[in-house]
User: Which sequence fits this backbone?
């Protein structure tokens, strides 16, 4: 498999910013995530074999310091992504022996013309808590697939579904190698920034250790994004998306469900919306309109 030495966010759809988490923050996050993962229900693990267990950050106010992390906001600014606001995040853990993640892209706003512009409207910030390689389940991407339709788009079903998450058919090509794939191996504490439109996936975890990842969604230039988009983003953040996020309703509206001190720490970075525009319709079908 190919490994590119450097990745460009705009050209390739993702990039790596080294060492954004210092040793102290990394150790603290490993402790916190280890505690949370010990409580994961085995039934959830079975239902989420491909993705790995998913724990919403909205469930744990101690993630406030990561959501508002200055080093990450500065890294985004240096990448030309100022004014980014947070909507949601997950602790994703792939246990030893965990299968590959299915190929997918995460953008849901394909009905809006902004989806076809070079500047991303939604990016993931991924922090792996261990060094990653293709042997323990590192990220893999199809460079350029955020802006350009590729043969891989035509081989994929529409986004996530339960059968894919359970790996009911391990021979489905959606888990396999794809033409043009590139491995994104990182050091623990590096930050991977990626465009939500990018086709990506992760290798199987063939190691003896858990491969944990904290992934957070941010929306650059949020206050100048179209109102319909902001209305949808804010509704995702408040966990109102019961169709697409069945666990969300149980947690309660975010960030209101957090204690006041944690809410204060993230106040400047949350994707609030007070207007009355109708939310943009949810459409995760990778668009045939891509060039
Ligand atoms: O588990 C990984 O490495 C990638 C996770 C991912 O693709 C996602 O959160 O959309």
Assistant:
């Amino acid at each position: 498999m190919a490994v590119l030495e450097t990745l460009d966010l705009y050209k390739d759809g993702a990039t790596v910013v080294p060492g954004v988490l210092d040793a102290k923050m990394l150790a603290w996050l490993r402790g916190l995530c280890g505690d949370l993962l010990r409580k994961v229900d085995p039934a959830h693990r079975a239902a989420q074999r491909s993705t790995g267990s998913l724990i919403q950050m909205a469930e744990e106010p101690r993630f406030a310091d990561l959501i508002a992390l200055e080093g990450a906001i500065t890294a985004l600014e240096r990448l030309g992504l100022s004014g980014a606001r947070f909507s949601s995040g997950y602790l994703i853990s792939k246990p030893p022996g965990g299968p590959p993640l299915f190929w997918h892209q995460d953008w849901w706003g394909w009905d809006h013309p902004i989806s076809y512009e070079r500047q991303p409207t939604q990016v993931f910030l991924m922090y792996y808590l261990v060094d990653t390689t293709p042997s323990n389940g590192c990220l893999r991407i199809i460079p350029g697939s955020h802006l350009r339709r590729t043969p891989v788009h035509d081989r994929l079903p529409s986004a996530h579904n339960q059968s894919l998450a359970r790996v009911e058919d391990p021979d489905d090509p959606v888990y396999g190698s794809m033409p043009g794939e590139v491995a994104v191996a990182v050091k623990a504490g590096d930050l991977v920034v990626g465009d939500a439109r990018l086709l990506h996936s992760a290798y199987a975890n063939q190691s003896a250790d858990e491969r944990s990842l904290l992934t957070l969604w941010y929306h650059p230039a949020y206050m100048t994004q179209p109102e319909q988009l902001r209305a949808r983003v804010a509704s995702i953040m408040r966990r109102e998306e019961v169709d697409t996020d069945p666990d969300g309703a149980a947690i309660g509206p975010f960030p209101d469900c957090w204690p006041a001190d944690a809410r204060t720490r993230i106040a400047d970075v949350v994707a609030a919306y007070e207007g009355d525009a109708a939310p943009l319709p949810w459409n995760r079908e990778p668009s045939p309109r891509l060039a």
Remarks:
- The chain has a mean pLDDT of 91.
- The pocket of 2-oxoglutaric acid is lined by residues 52, 92, 101, 106, 139, 200, 202, 213, 215 (CB under 6 Å).
